[in-house]
Structure formats: C-alpha cells, structure tokens
Amino acid sequence: MGKSIVILGAQWGDEGKGKIIDFLAPYVQYVVRYQGGHNAGHTIETGSKTITLHLIPSGILHQHITAIIGNGVVLSPVVLMKEIEILKKINVSTHRRVFISASCPLLLSYHVAMDVARENSKIFKVVGTTGCGIGPAYEDKISRRALRVGDLYNIKNFTSKLQDIVGYYNFQLVSYYKKEPIDYYEVLNEVLPIANVLLGMVSDISDILDNALRQEKSIIFEGAQGSLLDVDHGTYPYVTATNTVSGSASIGSGIGLARRVNYVLGVVKAYTTRVGNGPLPTELFDEIGALLCTKGNEFGSTTGRQRRIGWFDAVAVRYSIRINSFSACCLTKIDVLDDLKEIKICIAYRKKNGDLIYNFPNFIDELDNLEPIYEILPGWNKNTAGVLDFFQLPKETQFYIKRIEKIIGIPINIISTGVKRFETIVLCNPFL
Ligand code: GDP
Ligand code: IMO
Ligand code: MG
C-alpha cells in the first residue's frame, strides 16, 4: 500500500528536514516541494556526498526518486539551473527526474532588488529576510501579475508582460526607494536562453501525483522553512511569505489532503534556532548559546548568517503540533547538547502580571513580554554523536527525549544523532 507523508519543520526552520527526508527517501518514489523558494537550504550528507539544496527536493540523491516542484513554489530559473549543474558535478543526473509545475510563479531579479531595497530602507519592519526575493514574488502571485513558468509558452506575450512588470518595479525602486532601476534586457536574459529547458521539465504535477497514489506509490511532501514562520500562524510580521504548515502541501501540489495524506512528521531540533529578526522566547545570550552555535554549526545554509539559539520551547512546539496535526516528531541534533551540565525545557511562559500561559500566542507584542518558565534536566556529558540504538544513549539522554515526548504529547519516532544519513535512530518507521 502506498503512503504519503508530509515532513516539515516544527520551529523556525533549519530543523534538519533535508537530512531526514533524504534518510526516508528509500521508502518512497516521489519527493515534492510545495511552498517557499530558494530561501530554503536543506543540507544532506550521505557519507560520500554533501550538498545543500535550495529548490530541488531532498530525495534527488537517490536514483529512483522523481523530484517534483509544485505550483506553490516560487521558482528562480537561475537558481534551478545552478542547482542542476551542481548536482551534475557530483554525478547526480536530473534528466527526466525533475518535474515542475507550469503554475510556479517565476522569481526574477526585480524581486530580489525589491526585497533588498525594502529591508535596507527600514521604512517597514526589518524582517531579516534571506534577500532571495521571496516576499515580492508571492506578492506578484497574489496580485495576479506574476509571470509563471507556463507563460514561457508564448514568448511574445511573456516579453510584453515582462516589460510592464519591470516598469512597475522600476517606478518603486527609483522613486520610492531611491535605488538604481532594473534593466529589462538583463531580466529577459535570465529567462529566455533557458526557456526551453524549463518548459522541458513542465508536467501536470497534480496528475502525476494522483496517478502515483492510484498505483500505490509513496510520496514525501517536503516542507520548507518552519511552522512558526508561517505567514498566518507564525510570529507575524517576522515570517516568510507563504503558509508553511501542513495544509500547504495540498495547495502547493494540487492533491487534496483528505484520504490522501496518511501521516505528518514534524521535524524538531533538540533546542531552538532562528535566523532573522522576531521573537525567540527562550533565546540564549550567554556562553551556552555560543557553545551550541559552534557545536551545532548554526550558520544559515542559504545566507551564512549566524543563527540565534534558544532552549527547547515546548510551548511553541505544542502550538506547532496543533496547527499541523503532527502524527509524530523527529528529534534532531541531540548530539549538540552532549557537553552541557544541565539542559532546560521551556514548559510555560510568565506574563508581566505574573500569570502563567501554556498556549503560544501568535501576536508578537504578547510574545515580546513573556518570561520562559523552565524545567531543568541533568545533562549527560557523554558522546551521543552517531549512536544508532536508543538504548545505547546515556540514560539522561533517554530521559530528556522521553520528557520532551511527555510534555509535547505526541511520540518522537525518529532521533537524529549526527549530520550523516545513517546517523539516525528509528523507533517507529512511518512507512512500515
Ligand atoms: P533544514 O533546512 O531543516 O533542512 O536544515 P539545514 O540543513 O538548514 O540545517 C540543519 C543542519 O544541521 C545541517 O547542517 C545538517 O547537516 C545538520 N544536522 C542535521 N541533523 C543533525 C544531527 O542530528 N546532528 C548534528 N550535529 N547536525 C545535524
Ligand atoms: P529552511 O527550509 C530558516 C526566514 C528568514 C527571515 C524570514 C523571512 O532551510 O528551513 P524570506 O527570505 O523567506 O522572506 O525571510 O524567514 N527563513 C528561514 N529561516 N530556514 C529557512 O528555510 C528559512 N527561509 C526563510 O531568515 O527571518
Ligand atoms: Mg535550512
């Protein structure tokens, strides 16, 4: 029997989704990206190959996988082509294995220019975006002026629409943001030379996936970013420009959720990180934060920015479980906590007036004024990196994992103990 599973981040991104999706890819035939764009950076280390993927789904290193980019993804043709080249260099062929939706909005250089101009102008709240142009690309989609992959079928119309859009962006860039205008011919040159290659990858994604499910094939829907960066349910306005929650898998691929998705796996880091601005209630500003940052190599896979670090926030994760309907969690980077004397889990927040709250508020004004309440657990001061059996973990590590499981109220079915594919403990395999 085929199974389809959504795998996504339960915190603020970079939970280790890429590693886990690559690890589970042998159990499926298709991996589908359904939202976000190249703001995502999903790192995979097989043991012999290391790669950070931004657009192409994380199953691609497995020869049998068909990699799908659904309509919900904003697609930079330049980044896609670069990624295909990088894969070619490590002997991974993408030929007839990567399919894209004709409905993907194209992300072009004027989106990047607008994203950067806005962030630098400080006129609006500085989100600390990745500078990839994601917000403006989704704005174009919602405003119904986006150029989509399918527009490339009619180059005459495409070039004329592009002229209008470049004019629209240049008006804002020059008159409002006092920046240099974008050159129409440069934008055209980003797309025209590769138009046929892109169109060669176009397919009816909804139909492919529907047929796959009818033939009892299995699918992983690969989330990008994290639930708390969701544009509706996250820490608005410090969020990304899409819905990152599990419901997005349906919208961004053209497959209805009911009767089609069997399982939603939330990927959670054993502590918390966030890159960019916005609230992080359990943030650490001391040497423990610095230690976890170094040990966990917490630098953004897309921008190289240092990630902010905090203790595990069970209030935030419980909220994430609710908005995603997670079946279970996968706990990653447990090895990064190896050197600590004690480890904290945030179990509630205290408001300024002394009241305790147990529900994550998704209004940032409230979040800014909360004090985390911690449960303190003993550290283990032993190596867990690469441990492959739960019962080989120190008993304090086992206790930490079981305690998190109890507090969040759903099972932790997979534990990651290192960057490499095989450094994974499976307590319950969602595909078996
Ligand atoms: P993603 O965006 O959720 O795919 O996560 P990223 O790839 O941006 O960041 C996660 C980082 O942690 C990557 O560098 C991974 O190689 C690394 N990683 C994943 N799982 C583990 C783990 O269990 N232990 C350690 N030490 N590193 C891990
Ligand atoms: P993966 O898939 C972590 C953050 C940015 C910024 C906010 C908005 O690797 O987990 P955007 O460029 O999307 O408009 O920026 O969202 N952000 C991420 N943080 N991991 C990501 O992706 C992210 N993608 C966007 O840092 O705070
Ligand atoms: Mg990442």
From TrEMBL:
Q: Where does GTP bind?
A: 13-19, 41-43, 307, 333-335, 416-418
**GO molecular function, one example?**
adenylosuccinate synthase activity
Q: Which reaction does it catalyse?
A: IMP + L-aspartate + GTP = N(6)-(1,2-dicarboxyethyl)-AMP + GDP + phosphate + 2 H(+)
Q: Which UniProt keywords apply?
A: Cytoplasm, GTP-binding, Ligase, Magnesium, Metal-binding, Nucleotide-binding, Purine biosynthesis
What cofactor is this protein dependent on? Mg(2+)
List its EC numbers: 6.3.4.4
List the active site. Answer: D14 (proton acceptor), H42 (proton donor), K141
Question: So where does Mg(2+) get bound?
Answer: D14, G41
What's the subunit arrangement here? Homodimer.
**What HAMAP family does this protein map onto?**
Adenylosucc_synth (MF_00011)
Which protein family is named in the record? Belongs to the adenylosuccinate synthetase family.
The protein in question is named Adenylosuccinate synthetase
Q: State the encoding gene.
A: purA
